Amino acid sequence: MLVLTSKKYEVEETIKAVNENNETLYEFQMQITPDEMKELRDILFDEKSMNLAKKSAREKDIDKKEALDDEIVARAYELQDRFNDICFKEHKETFKEKCGEYKYLEMVDMMYDFFMKAFIDKKANQVNTISTNLKRIGNN
Predict the structure, then answer these.
(1) In this structure, how many other beta carbons lie within 10 angstroms of the beta carbon of residue 26?
(2) What is the pLDDT of residues 15-43, one digit of tens each?
(3) Into how many domains does the chain fold?
């Protein structure tokens, strides 16, 4: 039997920044809904950006290539901002104020890695399950 559980939040993680004395600078609960998870997946594995990059790589005309590259960069900034808004929500500016811009960017990188790993692990589990089931079927 296959069972799919629907939850209010797909991800609930405590985000915490501490100083060298292990004192908490800022802490909040990151809560990501199922719709936001889909949006994060679409941001991390953005097909439109990949298609633009392929098109840019094939383009011979320098001006057209630069225009495509500019579009790719603008899209990357837009997607990064949306990623940050989803993850930090109302805590974005407060986190920056209390921890600094550099630590904020480090936390963004950690969140990016966290979600990338989660999506990749999920896909790897699906592949492993399929191959295990195929072996079991083949042995009967």
Answers:
(1) 18
(2) 999 999 999 999 999 999 999 999 999 99
(3) 1
